[in-house]
Write a structure and sequence with these properties.
Elements lengths: L7 E4 L5 H12 L3 E5 L13 H12 L3 E5 L6 H15 L4 E4 L14 H29 L2 E6 L2 H5 L5 H21 L4 E8 L12 H4 L8 H8 L9 E5 L2 E5 L2 E2 L11 H12 L5 E2 L6
Helix pairs in contact: 1-8, 3-4, 4-6
1,4-dihydronicotinamide adenine dinucleotide binds next to helix 1, helix 4 and strand 6.
Amino acid sequence: MPGVTDRVVVVTGAGGGLGREYAMLLAREGALVVVNDLGGARDGSGAGSTMADSVVAEIREAGGTAVANYDSVATEEGAAALIKTAIDEFGAVHGVVNNAGILRDGAFHKMSTDNWESVQRVHLWGGYHVTRAAWPHFREQRHGRVVVATSTSGLYGNFGQANYGAAKLGLVGLVNTLAVEGAKYNILANAVAPLAATRMTEDIAPPEFLEKLPPAQVAPVIGYLVSDECTDTATVLVVGGGSVKRVAQFESAGVYFSEPPTIDGVAEKWSEITDLTGATLGKNPLG
Ligand code: NAI
């Protein structure tokens, strides 16, 4: 059976919300799942084993295979211990879903360095640490699947989420390079910006909007991205409420200046520079 059967997948932050749904679906489809969760509050304070344990219990009751891990993805040691759990319990790691996250919202003029840093630590550094710890295994077995949770707040911006948006778009930057470096080892790296009703969004959007966004609508796309069937890499998707869409960066035809223009020269051509008519998918001219 292809798909995710017998694939060992680590889902971070899987003790609730979207991560729980991802872990349950993967286990239902035959994956061996490491359910990681630090078990703290939405702002990252506190810790505990109850959240991860209860999801593992649910998976086992449904006949699936899972093991709990309570390490923080925000540290190198925590991520190393997490990947070690996969190796010790199941003998391999085939995929990581970097889903763990916290929120410390606040307008930028009130942003504290602590709120900036703790959000970067969990989302961006967490994605780095966990993927970095799994990477040698992926290369060695010539198979790996990386999924990161990005956000429309990073892709498009959102009031009060400068720290979060920066971390979330940082993860897209990470995925773009992992896709390049992983290509010859059959390592794929993709990003999903979910839209779902969880504790993270419960007071951000109105209830009538949230009730149309069950986390179960997002999980199958994560399942596909970690499956053997998937061949796509460096793809960014926005997924929620039944819709699955691709987001990409485009470059305008732009303007060519044979000599450095004056500022006025740039101003004169500005509408032509920024006109996206006939824009093409962007790619790195240095890559
Ligand atoms: P959630 O708060 O239910 O899930 C996040 C989980 O991560 C929690 O269970 C939490 O305990 C865990 N966690 C936090 N810090 C951790 C750490 N250091 N180590 C291990 N686990 C840790 O929220 P939700 O909505 O399920 O979020 C999942 C991911 O999706 C997050 O990365 C979030 O930023 C992202 N996302 C969610 C959106 C939504 O509409 N719900 C929108 C855009 C992005």
